[in-house]
Amino acid sequence: MMLKFFLLSFTLFLIFLSNTFSCENNSYIENRIEIWKSYYVNTQPTDTARNWYLPFETSNRLNPKTMSVVSTFGSPRNSYVKGHIHTGLDCIPKSSGENVDIYSMSDGIVCSIHLAHPYITIVVKHKTISGEIIFTSYKHLAEVYVKTGDNVNHKTKLARLYTRKETKKYGGRYDHLHLEIRKDFGDYGPASWATMTKEELNCRFYDPLIFIRENVR
Ligand SMILES: [Zn+2]
Q: Residue 68 belongs to a domain with what CATH number?
């Protein structure tokens, strides 16, 4: 009886910790937090994210093999903040036409839309079946079709990617989705381009490829 009570209390304590704990911000992030916080709307998702889908149309949005990987999570980057770590998965549908629409991966609420071309980013907040709050973040969007506070699900068209032709205008290859799965959004955005250590990376982000393999089925 005593043991049961202890285990229950301990579990509740762990849930409490996981809901309140946030990652440490390095000085770059800390100095910019107020800027990015202004784009954030703090509302809670009403629907639980039960089923997860690929973030774009493929021959089967429940089959991870219908997605192509352009660049993996955790690789070193020298763009923008030099030496930062790639916090997302760069991906595209395996076969697609000129236009690629981006959809929410599951039920959630749009909590932030920030940055400008070619880095426009939509962040969706989700409540998982275990009660955990996580975020999916979609970057390099040519056109945005939602606004902060919108409730979304896997059928909601969030945005559209750049075409090969459009991306040339920005002098780089932005015709892919930079997808992040975040455990924490306490930085309000800049951790996406200023995560400098593996500790920061693992505290704040899931490897999207592993997340997809485990949840998109
Ligand atoms: Zn990327």
A: 2.70.70.10
Domain count for the chain, please give it.
1
Taking the centre of ligand 1 as the mean of its atom positions, its distance from the CA of residue 117, in whole angstroms, is 14
Instruction: Please indicate, yes or no, if residue 12 is contained in any of the structural domains.
Output: no
Structural domain of residue 104, as residue ranges? 25-215
110-156 pLDDT tens trace: 999 999 999 999 999 999 999 999 999 999 999 999 999 999 999 99
pLDDT tens by residue, 57-107: 999 999 999 999 999 999 998 888 899 999 999 999 998 788 999 999 999
- Ligand 1 centre to CA of 86 (Å) is 6
Q: How many angstroms separate the alpha carbon of residue 89 from the centre of ligand 1?
A: 6
Burial class (CB in 10 A: 0-12, 13-18, 19+), 27: exposed
- Ligand 1 centroid to residue 182 C-alpha, Å: 14
Does residue 89 fall inside a structural domain?
Answer: yes
